[in-house]
Description:
Layout: H1 12-20, E1 31-34, E2 39-41, E3 55-58, H2 61-66, E4 70-71, H3 86-97, H4 105-110, H5 115-126, H6 130-147, H7 152-158, H8 164-175, E5 188-193, E6 200-204, E7 209-214, H9 220-231, E8 235-237, H10 241-254, H11 271-281, E9 289-290, H12 291-297, H13 304-312, E10 325-326, H14 339-349
Parallel strand pairs: 2-4, 5-8, 9-10
Antiparallel strand pairs: 1-2, 1-3, 5-6, 6-7
Helix pairs in contact: 12-13
Amino acid sequence: MKGTLMAALPPTAEMERAYQASDASYDGVFFLGVRTTGVFCRPSCGARKPLPRNVEYFATPREAVFAGYRPCKRCRPLSVPGEPPEWAGRLLQEIERDPSRRLTDSALKKMNIDPAKARRFFNRNYGMTFQAYCRGRRLGKAFQEIRSGGDLDDVTLGHGYESHSGFREAFARTFGTSPGRAGAAECIMVAWIESPLGPLVAGATDEHLLLLEFTDRRMLEAQVRTLRKHFNRPIVPGENGILRKIRGELKLYFAGELKKFTVPIAFPGSPFQQEVWKGLLSIPYGSTMSYEGLASKVHAAGAQRAVGHSNGLNRIAIVIPCHRVVNKSGKLGGYGGGLWRKKALLELERGERVFAFSH
């Protein structure tokens, strides 16, 4: 999973055209703050269009909030639908329909999709270019088929490789082993999971969930690096039983029907970090605990700052419920996914709201 997860904005002229046209395909790609009103909006907002000199652009709602803007009441930019833009959804469906198909720039243009926009979208949400994602998806499928006993000739040809040598080279570069030895290898599969609070990236082996993060969290790139460090395994887009399980459990959780996750998790870290994360797992659904209380619980009285730091390094959001830790005063405190999400999760667990989650 090479590349960067830094949120890169499109060119200013492109963003100006998008918001002037209320182009919903750019929703989630950028947000615009209006200096004259102090609000920030989605590109598709139907409000009167501000003059370009009065607009400031942001890659995430968090950046806009930190810059002093409040969310627009008309387009509600914090009410994330949890879906990729329509064009990205079509593209993801096309990849899954036939992972072996080579989707070139000309093929994307025939689908009325700008290749540059696709590259930015995949870089931002998956940490890789669109073509790198497609290669990873092909190899991920091939990896699973080989591990299940598939014939090497059939797998090679079935995934769009014209020769064994080309397939072996690409396979070894990604998985660090030859196709013939793949049965003993392992990888981390990553997938997009839609949620009422915005899309999440999940990563899992066949045995454990290792990663669950909102895609707009700035820590995501560092979390992926930490996964590589701890597990020394290739990270490729794909699907497995653990990812299907967490997808189903999240649906029940957001519907208010699940109070305890059963998906198996693995969260390596320092002994102190692991104690903090185990402490988080002990906070009951619907309850909160102060940073001071959590420090005492993990036998580190007075170490609230260190506890807060470890809390922020949690790689498995929601399942390891770091959102249940609040300031001693009762105020929400920090949350890597954004305070608005923390508030929504606590309201859900207190029975004050239930999310529609049709996916």
